[in-house]
Amino acid sequence: MRAAVFQPGQKMMVCEVPDPQCGEGQLTIKVKRCGICGSDLHVTNPAEGFNLAPGTIIGHEFCGEIVDVGPGLGSLWKEGQRITAVPFMGCGQCANCAMGQPVWCAKSRTHTTGGVPGGFAEYVVVGAGESVRIPDSLSWAEGALIEPLAVGLHAVNLGQLSLGANVLVMGAGPIGLTVVACAKAAGAGKVIVADISTQRADLARAVGATEFLLSDERLAEEFARIAGGPPDVVFECVGAPGLIDQCTRLAAPRSTVVVVGVCMKPDQFIPTVPLSKELRLQFAMAYGKRDFEVAAELIARGRVDVSGMVTEVVGFGQFPDALEALRERTTQCKVLLDPEL
To answer: Which positions ≥6 away from 169 have C-beta within 8 Å?
Structure first.
């Protein structure tokens, strides 16, 4: 099969590799779409401390069609079914796996860093226990967006939003936008997005944002003007040094700050700020299987519309350059690989 493989110091290299073989309790899917995530940019950048082996295949925002069913699955799964999967393969035996939380399995392997080969390929093997069916009404592009939407859904659930809560989302990247969509679906009041660039202002409004603001010295004042006061919940969806401190200063007393952004550098904040406000500081890590199931339902029922987040679909020929282009600030939002192009 063709796959985009990691080579240190180079662009991803598209080449022929052996087809994957599914074992007991596993499924092989023919990849229909696989999104490029910010974490893909992190793990392929040795300067950020990752040490992927040459030839590693990553990619975790995938969906596709079952083409092979491993032993031990009986009639639970069939060839031709449309699925996605939590990109963590657990042991299938521990309590975390039983609860649909393979992220916390001590023996978990992930497609994100190539612990198990990922979805930037024609075929990928997934765990049946981590797999989720895609409703027939969803397009393949929407199927690939279930994973990032599950990130946003998990973060919003951890934020414990009350109905009518006023929300500030820091960052208009793909994860920030999925947080917006899920916050609106959860019954939030004003949902305001802030970013240092206005490039995604229209897209933020399209997924449900009440308003878009520049992240500058007037942000607190402008948020209060629109929402009537400071935010009840702040979501940090950037992952850059200084953002946690900024979020704690913007948050209302006795409110919540949810850290979703992945910051790969040392950071610091002044503890007396969140202490004096009695803030709840909550970190969000990935998702569980139930988040995938609910994300698929939200799209299928029209509760969220994230289709506008897809700004480009590329084949293997364009893929290495498309991934590299995302390392710089861009007008792109979500770029998907279609292995059949």
So the answer is: 176, 179, 180, 183, 191, 192, 193, 194, 209, 234, 235, 237
Angle at 31 between CA 20 and CA 135, to 5 degrees: 130
Q: Give pLDDT tens digits for 107-159.
A: 999 999 989 999 999 999 999 999 999 999 999 999 999 999 999 999 999 99
The pLDDT tens digits of the residues spanning 226-256 come to 999 999 999 999 999 999 999 999 999 999 9
In order of their start, the domains of the chain are: 2-145+306-337 (3.90.180.10), 152-283 (3.40.50.720)
Contacts for 206 with CB less than 8 Å, ≥ 6 apart: 305, 308
Q: 167 versus 72: which is more confidently predicted?
A: 167
Question: Binning pLDDT at 50, 70 and 90, where does residue 57 land?
Answer: very high
54, exposed or middle or buried, with CB in 10 Å at 0-12, 13-18, 19+?
A: exposed
Exposure of 198 in the CB half-sphere (CA atoms within 13 A):
5
Query: Furthest-apart CA pair in the chain: how many Å?
Result: 60
- Residue 309 sits at φ, ψ, to 5 deg, of -70, -25
